[in-house]
Amino acid sequence: MKTLGIIFANIYDSSLGELTNKRTIASLPYGGRYRQIDFTLSNMSNSGIRHIGIITKYNYQSLMHHIGSGQEWDLEMEEGGLEYLTPFAMGHNGSYRGKLEALNSAMVFLENSTEEYVILADSNVLCNIDLEKVLEHHIASGKDVTVVVKDGIANGSKQLDLGVRLGKDGEVIDLAVDYCAGPEYLASMGIFAMRRELLIHYVKESVARSLYRFERDFLLKQFGDKNLSVGVYQFEGVAMFNESTLEYYRNNLALMDEATRHGLFRTGRTIYTKVRDRVPTTYGENADIGDCIVADGCRLDGTADHSLFFRQVTLKKGAKVTDSVIMNDCVIGEDAELYCVILDKDVVVRPGVRLIGTPENPIIVKRGDVV
Question: Torsion-angle region of residue 190: left (phi > 0), alpha (psi -120 to 50) or beta?
């Protein structure tokens, strides 16, 4: 079944503060060598979705540079392939107030497409999912909309964009938006399946009435008015909800766990990314590196434990890094000490500097800063 893919690249940028101040959440680095959009693009490509629109509104230069023509994902930038739906291309200026407004700005793209079904996906939840099975489940259910959900996320304190509660018969009995739902609710993973024509209809009807939020103004409203049937597809695999700086920090370090790592990077379902060949990492005679993930091109002469190093990081003699996430091209000077820290790209830490955060409040150093 031919399916159209829509990826939202910017919708949740504000939730990660400085990390997404100059980049989209979709282009946020993750796991040593990936960007968050790599997971959504790979899921679509691995599921046979070849026509994909990426909706983005600002700070999208690095995103476009990373994806390029889409070759790494077996996609091409041509009609019927990969398309960037930018404000310039769509004649829209300013920020989108919600997904419905973003989709309305991409109406020409939606109307000119010929696929019967559409998969909508955010860029803030990372997983390795077979979207073909999601669509098969959606068609078999006969529902208007299918929401991909995950259990074990709702805990009464985490605010869910969309919480879904099922009855004993497995049918949806309640939807809640922006709600700190209890464990009886399933958390939406920001992935939705529906007919393209139905989506077009409700986008036009909603925006004409100044309704812009997909979950609240479309799903919740139409479900409550009994105009829309909603079903769920429960995903059983690993799902990383990077919806806050703390979650992003913890979910990077969670890759140290073998089961988590293998659940996200599954055999036979590759997560693709832009190829950047670098020389192998060099470990100096004084290096003491334990329980870390290290990308290529690094030069490590210090001590590190339970930390993640992106490409081309320099860790000089006597420096110590613990429970930290170090992005590309950072330089950590001699005898510096870092504990519970996120260094964005191109940060220089001077010799002898101590940066001490906590597991609940990691220190974030902005891209290109010298400390």
Answer: left
Q: Quick check: 231 and 117 in contact, CB under 8 A?
A: no
Residues 6+ apart with CB under 8 A from 21: 366
From CA 314, how far away is CA 331, in angstroms rounded? 5
What is the three-class DSSP state of 339? Answer: strand
Buried b (16+ CB within 10 A) or exposed e, 257-287: eeeeeebbbbeeeebbbeeeeeeebeeeeeb
Condensed to tens digits (0 to 9), the pLDDT of residues 156-179 reads: 999 999 999 999 999 999 999 999
Give yes or no for residue 153 having a pLDDT over 90: yes
Q: String of b and e for 304-317 (b: at least 16 CB within 10 Å)? A: beebbbbbbbbbbe
pTM over 0.90: yes
The four Cα atoms 60, 66, 69, 70 give a dihedral, to 10 degrees, of -110
Do residues 306 and 320 touch, judged by C-beta distance below 8 A? no
Residues 6 or more apart whose CB falls under 8 angstroms from that of 56 comprise 9, 10, 24, 26, 63, 84, 85, 86
Paired residues of 240 in beta bridges:
126
DSSP state of 11: T
What are the phi and psi torsion angles at 347 (to 5°)?
-80, 140
Radius of gyration of the chain (CA): 21
Task: Note the helical H segments in the chain.
Answer: 37-46, 61-67, 87-90, 99-105, 107-112, 131-141, 196-207, 221-224, 245-253, 258-264
